[in-house]
TrEMBL record:
It comes from the Bacteria. This is Glyoxylase I family protein. InterPro entries: Fosfomycin_Res_Enzymes, Glyas_Bleomycin-R_OHBP_Dase, Glyas_Fos-R_dOase_dom, VOC_core, YwkD-like_dom. Pfam families: Glyoxalase. SUPFAM superfamilies: Glyoxalase/Bleomycin resistance protein/Dihydroxybiphenyl dioxygenase. PANTHER family: FOSFOMYCIN RESISTANCE PROTEIN FOSX, LYASE, PUTATIVE-RELATED-RELATED.
Length: 129
């Protein structure tokens, strides 16, 4: 067996670094652990945490190619965040100008969830847990 212990982090390349940094830190509330600018790559790397646990790397690169992205596109389907109160989380996103899909109910678990997108249209999910 390979011996995997847990998911270490998710990496996201953004088109507009400052816009995405604001979205992930101010709108979603992730904490900045470290931010570095790599001159040789003309790239920022922002390490973000959720409740103190390192979870996301946000990268910028000059002119990154666009990637088709919807939950049904081939590849990574979406990144989901667990929330205690879905209605409150949706209200917060909407107050920040984020468009949120109607709340659905998982037919297998009975739990409520919804989708929204980051500034690059990457699909994100809130799942009430």
């Amino acid at each position: 067996m390979i011996g995997l212990k847990k998911i270490h982090h998710i990496a996201v390349i953004c088109a507009d670094y400052q816009l995405s940094k604001r979205f992930y830190t101010e709108v979603l509330g992730l904490e900045v652990l470290q931010e570095v600018y790599r001159e040789e790559r003309q790239s920022y790397k922002l390490d973000l945490a959720l409740k103190g646990e390192y979870v996301l790397e946000l990268f910028s690169f000059p002119n990154p190619p666009a990637r088709p992205s919807r939950p049904e596109a081939a590849g990574l389907r979406h990144l989901a965040f667990a929330v205690a109160d879905l209605d409150l989380a949706v209200q917060h996103l909407q107050e920040q100008g984020v468009e949120v899909e109607p709340i659905r109910v998982d037919t297998y678990t009975g739990k409520r969830f919804t989708f929204f997108a980051d500034p690059d249209k990457l699909p994100l999910e809130l799942y009430e847990a």
